[in-house]
Amino acid sequence: MVADRILLSEAVFTGNTLEPFAGGVAIAGNRVLAAGSKDEVMALAGPDTLVEDYGARLIAPGFNDSHLHFASAAALNDPDFCVNLMGCTSERECAERVRAFCEAHPHNEWVYGVGWDTAMWEQHETPSRESLDCFAPEQPICLSSFDHHAAWVNGAALAKAGITAETPQPEGGEIVRDASGRPTGLLLGQPASTQVSDLALLVKGLKGSILRLLDVFRGLGITAVGDMFPRDLSNDDIYDTYRQIEDEGDLSCRITFFPSLLEIPEALEMKTSFASDRLRVGGVKQVLDGVVEAQTAFMLEPYEGTDHRGETNLPPAQFKELVRAADAAGLAVRVHCIGDAAARLALDAHEEAQRANGRKELHHCLEHIETIVDEDIERMAALGVGASVQPLHATFGSSTGFYDVCIGADRASRCWRFRTVRDAGVPLGLSTDFPAAPMVEPLQVLYAAVARCMPDGEPAEGFHREYALALGEALQCMTQGSAWVESFDHELGTLEPGKLADLVVIDRNLFALDSLHDIVEASVVLTVVGGETVFER
């Protein structure tokens, strides 16, 4: 077969090994024809073959962000829909941004914002409804925290949601109240926060926002994503929007959906109706616990200075039965488990499912596993359960000091152990959880994975760099590993014959840099999806 296109470079990283080699990639149609030496791929050239020589610039598989929230990210990056609170250093600064947004958008039925983080506030205040009610007594406001596990709302939003002093506390969450029992406007844990945010996010007409985000992704070299809870905007027509974009030829990123574990029949129906190489279903997802910062992650030992260990968002027996049912139906299950007790419960569920159903070739996966203990890492490997982790969570989370406060310095020193997980033989994918993480740039993810530093290079020694990955390992985890956790590695993740021709060219050889921090200075110069150029600089 003759190649339609051949890309040459002194540095080709296929993902099958951990080092690049001099050679090239040959493409025929939408698939890789060959990857090898220059002589091997040039032997496939014909008179009409396009040959491109990128010199010392790195050719690699397309980046795959295997855990994000696509529609939410699209909406939240639309400046006419959402006010961005990232970078604010006080409750007052957040409120001033929201006030300005309200004045510019007086006809918005809801005002929605995202990104506040009390760990970044100078005085670590607790936000309250009063700072919003003073300028918006009637326009409902819902402000999600940076990780979407808490909401700060005003009185009008509480009224819209029907939350009063008499409203019972939701299982796995907390409606914070003052001494008189009156809700303060702070909702902790998703079982509480989503009572308001689900109303605020009843968004229609997201097509334009999605197209804008796709354009951003092309420039970043993101060719595939795993979309957790695709309908988390409570938007029933979101799937039709995706399909329309695909039909019009504008879907430049492959999207693998992971609907809720509570929607097994719907997920099975979707698996049939979305079965292209651009829109597909990879399994289901469940949020089993909360986050360490809010002390809602489910822990084996109590939080510092308390007798509280957090709790699960579903009764354990119900969760285990749902995992067994999904496994029996052939659906891979991805479980958010930040606490070590949540990780143990998830593995118990998978172990019981294997006993009941027999071991299947399903790519079950635990998400985040920030505090998992050694024996359960070993169980993951034994059970064939993969891990999906977020290096930016590790660096930003470590920088706040909140983990030391919440779980003590000893436990905090053993968080985000990517090296330990990989060395145990657990399939490992890297992602961002965007927009729950403040950025989506793959090169920032790579840098965080190998240096364990913030984007500015601090701290110079990294946050527990003993748990860092080597560059080849991190790049493999962002490509082949991410495809594995999406149950898509038979088609994606490596540059080898027969796989879809999704690749990026980076403006330098990342394996020949003087400093790890030079990774964040690099940029994508070419993005190819299915053999076609979708971005070129």
Automatic annotation (TrEMBL):
UniProt feature coiled coil, ranges: none
Family annotation (InterPro entries): Amidohydro_3 (IPR013108), Metal-dep_hydrolase_composite (IPR011059), Metal_Hydrolase (IPR032466), YtcJ-like (IPR033932)
Pfam family, any one: Amidohydro_3
Keywords: Hydrolase
GO molecular function: hydrolase activity, acting on carbon-nitrogen (but not peptide) bonds
Residue ranges constituting the Amidohydrolase domain according to the UniProt record: 57-535
Highest taxon of the lineage: Bacteria
Gene3D superfamilies named among the record's database cross-references: 3.10.310.70, Metal-dependent hydrolases, Urease, subunit C, domain 1
Protein name: Amidohydrolase
